[in-house]
Amino acid sequence: QVQLVESGGGLVQAGGSLRLSCAASGSIFSINAMGWYRQAPGKQRELVAVITRGGSTNYADSVKGRFTTSRDNAKNTLYLQMNSLKPEDTAVYYCNVRRLVSGTTYNYWGQGTQVTVSS
Length: 119
Prior knowledge:
Layout: E1 2-7, E2 10-13, E3 18-26, E4 31-39, E5 46-52, E6 57-59, E7 67-72, E8 77-82, E9 91-101, E10 104-109, E11 113-118
Parallel strand pairs: 2-11
Antiparallel strand pairs: 1-3, 3-8, 4-5, 4-9, 5-6, 7-8, 9-10, 9-11
């Protein structure tokens, strides 16, 4: 099992910044990707950013150039730096970890943290 604890959400004005953190513990070996998803009211959960074991990153088109994901392997922590926030970024943000063990993929989710951007 992997436990994920998120922090850093909150209320910010449009144009502002926030940094989310996701601390991982437990069976963190065999993690091959970590990422962030978000879900706005009435919408499906969508991928925001992902970083692979090798350090490659991928972003949703809507956040490219504004959001940056990174990880601190020594602290087993994933970050999402969000700049130039827009009201449409308002959502619950979830940390995700994907493990590959003996050919089986396991997904783990954080509890979610609310990000609200006011106009």
